[in-house]
Amino acid sequence: MTQHTDATTAHLPSSNGRHIAQPVIPGVQRFSKRVIVRLVDAVATRLAQQLTTQRVADTIAERVVGDQLGQIVADRIAGNSELTQNIAYRVTTELLHGCANQSATPRQLFAEISDDYWLWLLTEGYRTSTRLQRLLPSMPDPDIQLGFTGQVGDRTLHEGFIHYQLFRDLFETHNGPISTAQRILDFGCGWGRIIRFFLKDVDQPQLWGVDPLEQMIALCSDNQWANFQQVGTRPPTEFGDDSFDLIYAYSVFSHLSEEVHAQWLTELARLLKPRGLLVVTTREREFIEFCASLRERADRDTLHAAIQSSAWSFMDTRRSLDAYDRGEYCFTQHVQEGEWAYWGDAAIPKSYVLKHWTRDLQFLDYIDDRSRYPQNVIVMMKPNRDDTREQSRG
Length: 394
Description:
The chain is of the alpha/beta class. The protein has helices spanning 33-48, 53-64, 67-78, 81-97, 106-110, 115-122, 124-128, 130-135, 142-149, 153-175, 214-219, 258-271, 285-295, 305-309, 317-325, 350-356, 385-393, and strands spanning 8-13, 19-24, 184-187, 207-211, 227-230, 244-249, 272-282, 330-333, 344-347, 362-367, 376-381.
């Protein structure tokens, strides 16, 4: 946390009676504590709808004094993480306590806030507010977080937020505002890391998560604003035809055998509404080379078991790379027996998608760019029935 040796500290009472330590910025110390409190009160409602660090700073500067001193205030607030956190806490308090409806949903409370503020609420804000802890989903034990995502705490949520932004933004690029999605499905939701970020976009009847692991569905049960259902390791599901506007799957098609991937692709196409979007991730070509590098690491035994297992994927590196370049489905099976004997590491090249995924779905995009996303991303749409008939007549 950033410290400023040239600032003293004042204590501002929050609306729930709690006192919050806040640095007093040199150059504005002539303002009384009462004036500062009134200032924060005045901007809290406005900021609650649009909070980002710089916007907080600029707005407070605007309300205090003229340009020169105002810029000093803005610079100090934007550069002081402790002060920014305290202001964010105060704005959250105003939002939650200013809501007459104590049963308000996350969407009713937070639909218009910025991405930065939403991520803050689910991380730092969650830890400082008992009301948020009652309202928003909790986190599972660190061992479970690590086993499923390779990260824990804020780091795994920050990573999950990147996934959420990608899925949301792709939907909005092709179909319009995410708030118009009548139903969204997180296919392979795990412990609910990604689905929680959609809580400010859609209401509970519209949001679904499925997973084959009973333990994961149980862990999701404290998320009161979404619906969760256990599914089998192979289709079908209990959902009806044309059920979802958006289906996303992070790191699921990265692990399926070719046979099982084809079964699930057919099922997900059935579940999509016409013009519904399917967004899934798969291993990238570089992952094949990464597996080879794991086999050379002297410290491999210190890595998490999920990472260690990839050392035995694509054992013939050159042959696997050549197969990928020829457009073949590349897969190494890790589980040999039982219900999960389809699980391993999979890398699906673009040319394979174009050849095998377009029977029931329309190809939209294949993102193969590590600066944008850690895995490759396949984006498909279910065509309108009228479009399909037109194509068949053509």
